[in-house]
Each structure stands twice: as C-alpha cells, then as structure tokens.
UniProtKB/TrEMBL annotation:
Its main location: cytoplasm. The keyword Transmembrane does not apply. The keyword Transmembrane helix does not apply. Pfam families: 4HBT, START. InterPro entries: Cytosol_ACT, HOTDOG_ACOT, HotDog_dom_sf, START-like_dom_sf, START_lipid-bd_dom, Thioestr_dom. GO terms for biological process: acyl-CoA metabolic process; fatty acid metabolic process. One of its GO terms (cellular component) is cytosol. Pathway: Lipid metabolism; fatty acid metabolism. One of its GO terms (molecular function) is lipid binding. It comes from the Eukaryota. This is Acyl-CoA thioesterase 11. Keywords: Cytoplasm, Fatty acid metabolism, Hydrolase, Lipid metabolism, Repeat, Serine esterase. It is found in: Cytoplasm.
C-alpha cells in the first residue's frame, strides 16, 4: 500500500441496493427475505475473494433486527405533501462484508447492514450478522484456506474473537440440551390476561418450491439466500395464523445448512409456532429436499427458529394468543422454545451489562454459562487488540503500559522468561496458587468446576476496603488454548454472582471488570507473559496516586510471579506428561 493511500481490507465487499416496489412487503417495508438474499450474496463474494474458489454457506448466526426499514424512515417533504406512504421505495440499503478469520476449510464473514435515507442523508443500523462459509475444491471437496493477516485494531479484535464465536456455535446444541436436562424452565404462559388459546397444529404451514435455474447460484446449487427467503415466508404465514395480524420479524436464530440442493429438487418447507410468550412467538422452520414426487426419503437440508412480534399503531408489542402444543414432539418444541428464549435474554443481559459496565458482576447459571465464558474471553481479547497502549515505565525488563479510554484506566504488564508457554498457562490459570506470588490474594477456593476450561473461585483478598473490611470476590476464570499458530494462551477473569456465595457482612464484595493473562511462545525456550487489568477509577485500592509507585508495586508482584513459575514449572511438566 502506497503512502497516503487509505487501507482497505482485501476481502471487503460492499453492496448498495436501491429499494424498489418489488422488494417490499404489504406494509411498504423492505422484505426480510429480500434482505437475506442480499446479505448472503455479499458475504459469499467476500468469502470467495479470500478463498479464490467457490464457497457455500454453512451457517448464519443469530440476526437481531434493530429496525425495520420503514420504522426508521423519515418521510421526505415532497412525499408528505403528496400523501405518499410507500416510504421505503427509492431508499438505499448498504451491506458491508469482510472475512474475519479463516480456519482450516471454513471462514467467518462479518456482515454489517445499514439503511440510508437519501433525502436527509441519515443512516441507521439495521442488523449485524456473522456467517460461516466453506471453501469447495474442484475435486476433493473441502480445501485448506490460507490464514488471514489482520492489520487494524478492529480486524485484530474480530480475528481473535472469531475463535470464541466458533467455539460457541459448536457448543450451542449441547448448551440447549444441558439446560433442558438440568434446569427448571418456566414454561407456563406469561400473559394470563389473554384467554385465547390456539392449537399449534392450526399454525402449521407446508409449502413446496421447485428449484429452477434462477434459484441457483454460480455453482449450480440452490442459492442459500433464496432458501432463507423461502423459510422467512412460511414462518411469517405460520405466525400470522396465530395472531391473525401481520407480524414483524425481530430475531432469526442460526440458519444451519446441513446439505446442498440442486436445480430440479423439490424443497418442502415446514413451519409451525412452537411457543407463544406475552409479546412474542417463536416459529420453527425446517427444509427437506427430494428429487422426484414419488420419493419417500427426504434430506433435511436446513432449519432455523424465528421470533415475531405484533406491533400496534404506536409501534408497541401487542399481546399474543396462547399456544397449545401437540403431544410428543410439539411439547418438546414448546419446552425448547422456552429454553432458547432464556438463552437469548441471558445473552442480551450480559451484553447490556458489558456496554454500561453496571453491574460488573453478572449472575451465572446453566443457561448463560457458554455465553458468559465467551464474553469473559472476548472482553480480554478486545483489550489485547487495542493499539494505543503507552509505555509508562520499564524496570529490569518488566514493562508496564497504560491505556486511558473514557473513564476506564487499563494496565498491561509483560515480561519474557524461560518457561514453556503451556506450563505458564496451567500455573497461572489456577487461582488457588495465586497467593504464593500475589500479595493481594489471601486465598482462593474452587467453588465450581464448570467444565475443563471454566472455573468459579471465591477469592479472599488482603486488600482492605474503605469500610475497613477485607474484600472478597467471586471470579469466573476462563482459559483457552491457541486456536492457530501464533495465537496466545488466554486466561480471563471477571466477576460473577452465585446464589451459593452471597455477600458476607464480614467482607466488602469486590468486582473485577476485565483482567487476565495472555501467554505467547516466542521461541523454543522463551515465553512472553502479559497481564491485563481494566479498572474504573478507585477500583484497585492498592493503586498508588503516582505512576512510579504503581509500577514499583506491579514490578514486585510480577517478579514474585516469575519466581513462582520457575519454582513450579517442573512439577507442572510431570502433571502434563501424566495426562
């Protein structure tokens, strides 16, 4: 790139579409089905730009529609004067897609959709999504992709967090099963003020589509965006049969493409309302493919779950009639819909807490454990990806950097030492040993072993609060091994709340926002250990008022950490060999 030239991601693809009457629904809004076609096309072109070969859609992550196009439309003066209300037509949808990370044969593509009012010049976000594409070789099927080299701070952050999103996708089915097995779900009707009960069977929709050449992509397979559009269509019909109104689509839970279909295939689309809550309903959709009309066997090629609401004249959600599920599979779908709703609400709560930073501690339970772990690691990776760190001091090869953003002050302390990265990873992830090198820790008790990589500790601190009482913490420790060569080992910490560990009047309950270690294997003998801590003003009681005193404190602690690692590395090596 020449000097002065603006950097642009080589995989970035932009699409701008003028909304025409053929793109809108009966309300004058841009059809979600049409939007899904544009999204899939843009994302596919981005994936193929990186892969250099044809790519197919494997999945599209949950899509939350922040606005419908018409809801955020400002009617131009000339339309107001003439009383026209088809305000979508003539406006522009902008879609931007770029590859965030390439794995072996799959890659994650990030998609951002915005809406532009040409008369006012204003723009609004419509939705953000992540799609997974698989590269298709000429003869051998899947092919190995070249790694991506992120350049900007945003690209580095998305590249790092993409590994966490992939982990969460793979764990989603197990999370749902675990919630259904081990948790008590509230499946009773929330809106007791509605007496209307509709049998779920009355909302069932079945529709057959014949795949014709215009429905195929440039590889001869059925275009993924077309399948998603057909699925949205039958889901809307099913939702309408429950509420006898025109519903608005708010959320699409992951599209999962299980297999391809080709021109000449018949696609049987099935939709039914799985559950209705007070102001929303979930519709399940599946797609089966078959070749001939007399064929008995059918291939399940796609599925998704869509959440609809019905808006009144003021744009507020209306009460939805109750659903009576069918016995057997209907009752199973009914309970699973309740579980998915709980997972969605828990995730939204975690995100809102992360955006406002209040409260710092988020309740932990079975339904949100995967997403809370993802959020814990992602917050640390986001901090690591920041580029505006400032070197504050260096003492005996221990370097301390600071980062000031808004009202938060972050610290990064790093050093290189002779130890294997794996050894340092296991030693630093066990908080029960931290008191041996960190004088601010009195003790740490392992309260719950969530899984192999996530643990919850109750920590007693040596630090005395302003109330003249020692502090205690309930901390979720999440650790990750490298996903690819060059990735660090990660150990992330954040505060959570547990019913089994309520605040004790003898202690002041402290909270940690975001902290942890990143560990890089630099050479065969040398490992770089970096510690990060993001704190609000006044959070760390032991932080002195001057940077020299602060760096001295961290230096003493980090040197103690180095001695601890050197002392215990042989012991951890024996343990690793016995695994």
């Amino acid at each position: 790139m020449e000097r002065g030239e603006r950097y642009r991601n080589p995989t970035e693809v932009q699409m701008s579409q003028m909304v025409l009457p053929c793109h809108t629904n009966h309300r004058g809004e841009l059809s979600i089905g049409q939007l899904l076609k544009w999204i899939d096309t843009t994302a596919c072109l981005s994936a193929e730009r990186h892969a250099g070969c044809p790519c197919v859609t494997a999945s599209v992550d949950d899509i939350y529609f922040e606005h419908t196009i018409r809801q955020i439309q400002i009617m131009p003066p000339w339309q107001q004067q003439h009383g026209k209300n088809n305000v979508c037509v003539g406006q522009v949808v902008n879609i931007k897609a770029k590859v965030n990370r390439a794995f072996n044969s799959s890659m994650e593509v990030g998609i951002q959709v915005s809406y532009e009012d040409l008369c006012s010049g204003k723009q609004w976000n419509v939705c953000k999504a992540y799609a997974t594409f698989v590269a298709q070789g000429k003869a051998t099927g899947k092919m190995k992709l070249k790694p991506l080299a992120p350049q900007t701070e945003e690209e580095k952050m998305e590249h790092s967090i993409a590994a966490e999103r992939r982990r969460m996708r793979l764990a989603h089915t197990d999370t749902l099963k675990d919630l259904l097995t081990n948790s008590t779900l509230q499946t009773e009707r929330e809106n007791g003020d509605c007496n209307t009960v509709v049998p779920a069977e009355k909302t069932r929709v079945e529709s057959v589509e014949l795949v014709l050449p215009p429905h195929a992509n440039h590889q001869g397979n059925t275009f993924g965006g077309q399948i998603m559009a057909w699925m949205e269509n039958v889901a809307t019909i099913a939702a309408s049969r429950l509420c006898h109104a025109h519903p608005t689509l708010k959320t699409i839970e992951m599209f999962h493409f299980r297999g391809p279909s080709q021109v000449g295939d018949r696609l049987l689309l099935k939709a039914i309302v799985n559950n209705a809550f007070k102001n929303s309903m979930e519709v399940g959709v599946c797609v089966e493919a078959y070749r001939q009309e007399m064929e008995v066997s059918r291939r399940h090629i796609n599925s998704a779950f869509m959440t609809f609401v019905v808006l009144d004249q003021e744009g507020q959600p209306s009460t939805i009639p109750m659903v009576k599920p069918e016995a057997g599979d209907g009752e199973r779908r009914y309970r699973e819909a309740s579980a998915r709703k709980k997972i969605r609400l828990d995730r939204k709560y975690i995100i809102s807490c992360e955006q406002t930073k209040v409260p710092l501690s988020v309740p932990w339970d079975q339904s949100n454990k995967v997403y809370l772990s993802y959020n814990n690691v992602s917050a640390l990776k986001t901090l690591v990806a920041k580029t505006n760190w400032v070197l504050a001091t260096e003492i005996d090869k221990v370097r301390m950097y600071t980062l000031e953003e808004d009202k938060y002050l972050s610290f990064r302390i790093e050093m290189s030492l002779c130890i294997d990265a794996t050894q340092a990873f296991f030693l630093l992830s066990d908080l029960r040993q931290r008191h041996e090198w960190d004088r601010h820790y009195a003790s740490a008790e392992l309260v719950q072993q969530v899984d192999e990589d996530d643990m919850i500790y109750h920590v007693l601190s040596q630090t005395v609060s302003q109330e003249n009482k020692p502090q205690d913490f309930v901390i979720l420790a999440s650790r990750r091994r490298p996903c690819d060569e060059g990735d660090p080992y990660v150990v992330a910490f954040r505060s959570v709340t547990l019913p089994t560990r309520p605040p004790n009047p003898e202690y002041t309950r402290g909270e940690t926002m975001c902290s942890g270690f990143c560990i890089w294997q630099e050479t065969a003998e040398l490992t770089k250990v970096s510690y990060y801590n993001q704190a609000a003003p006044g959070y760390l009681a032991y932080v002195t008022t001057n940077i020299a005193g602060l760096s001295s404190d961290f230096y003493v602690t980090f040197k103690a950490c180095e001695r601890f690692l050197q002392k215990n590395k042989d012991e951890i090596t024996v343990g690793l060999q016995n695994l």
